[in-house]
Design a protein that fits this description.
The structure holds two protein chains of two kinds. By secondary structure, chain A is an alpha/beta fold. Chain A has eight helices and ten strands. A six-stranded mixed beta sheet of chain A has the order 6-7-8-3-9-10. Chain A has a four-stranded antiparallel beta sheet with strand order 2-1-4-5, covered by helices on one side. In chain A, helix 4 (109-122) crosses helix 5 (139-151). Classes of the chains: A alpha/beta, B mainly alpha. The complex binds adenosine-5'-triphosphate (ATP) and magnesium ion (MG).
Amino acid sequence: MITLASVHKSFGPKRVLRGVDLTAQKGESVVIIGGSGTGKSVLLKCILGLIRPDDGVITVNGQDVTRADRDEFLARFGMLFQGGALFDSMTVWQNVAFRLLRGAQKRPKAEAREIAVEKLRRVGLTPDVADLYPSELSGGMQKRVGLARAIAATPEIIFFDEPTTGLDPIMSGVINELIREIVVEMGVTAMTITHDMSSVRAIADKVAMLHDGVIKWHGPVAEMDTAEDPYLRQFISGSAHGPIEAVR
Amino acid sequence: MTALLFPFAAVGRTTLALLAEIGRVTLYAGRTLGHILRPPFYPSALVSQLIFIGWLSLPVVGLTALFTGGALALQIFAGGSRFNAEAVVPQIVAIGIVRELGPVLGGLMVAGRVSAAIAAEIGTMKVTEQIDALVTLSTNPMKYLTVPRVLAATISLPILVAVGDIIGIFGGYIVSTTQLGFNQAVYLDNTVDFLETWDVTSGLIKGAVFGFIVALMGCYHGMASGRGARGVGRATTNAVVSASILILAANYLLTGLFFSA
Ligand SMILES: Nc1ncnc2c1ncn2[C@@H]1O[C@H](COP(=O)(O)OP(=O)(O)OP(=O)(O)O)[C@@H](O)[C@H]1O
Ligand SMILES: [Mg+2]
């Protein structure tokens, strides 16, 4: 279980997170929505300890993330970065199998490669991309390699930062299904950031909307369409008029 | 009144910023040394850095030494002839190359080549979130990126300096025997008889220190890189400039330490 209590983070004068409270139960799929630049990516990085919050407490399974043993803590996580963040000095399969080639989960090269190719297949990539370098792939393909890397070592908790951005509708559908499958089959706790409302409906158990540095609305995905919250309404309908200023 | 104080305030701010930077670099160096000794180790990363930093720097260092040795021979011959001391060319070329020019010029050339490349690579990894990705994949960037580079440079530079010494002396030898009328056998005899072990080893120790500085500055500025292409460009410049200045400063300190007793 992941809990955030009153998490604050500023960059200089810019107050990005201003008291975020959020929980994700074990095996639950939480989707975070919110305008561009509201701090969704920063929020995930705070949980991972990549960014240190100015204030507030974040716990994973009751353990404070700032005090946890880093290696053991991070071994439970998989993360898809918004920009992919693939290592450009390594081939695609070495990227996917990164965790399987070193450290605690190290295994023989052939076996690691086999797992990598299988994960690539699950994100809709053929085995022949395995030996290419990330720079030789299209943006959407890179994103899917990042996704394969995030799930490669079968983590308990996975964060997806915009998994379907830059993908065609069919591939988006495949990825949505994959994320849902991972949550249901493997009992993974997932936190996903997306701007794609059809993804939200496909992936989420619970939806949380970040705006003005706080969670403005959260609840089960089924209640999303009937909720009264004007911020949420405007976001779902994609209207330029409402409490959220379109010109910032 | 406050306008009058402005220049002093600026000097004060710069001094404080410089002191803070020195503190951060020292801390970073200390952390690097700590990580060198503690597992996990990444031997394959070390090997590829040895190839990049050591092996691929050979042409640069070799050519620098060759031309420097040649020019040195010409200068010492011209200067020595003012008081009939042309015969000292082999000795002065040897000591000049081995004690000073070999390590310093080798260090500076490698600083240009290697610090810049390291800072650009690590800086790009930083701005494209690859460093963050490493962390989430339970890999410590200090151990995986910094340690292999710093170790490889610290090991490589003394070897590069040794090769540079030989090539530099050879450069002086070619110029002296072909243009200045020195006898080949006598030139070599004079060089070998004159040099003491400490002349050579002091230069190699300097090389190791310079290697440490070169890689450390590349890694430090890469890791501290700002966001975007501008941030990386700045990190690269800072790495080369600070590595070069630190090499020259360290050279002065080490020379004082080694030879002024
Ligand atoms: N390392 C950083 N240094 C300074 N400012 C930062 C840093 N990281 C993020 N920010 C700022 O924090 C704010 C939130 O950034 P974040 O990347 O979390 O947005 P986001 O909600 O993920 O947006 P998007 O949907 O466009 O990805 C932005 O205004 C950004 O400029
Ligand atoms: Mg984002």
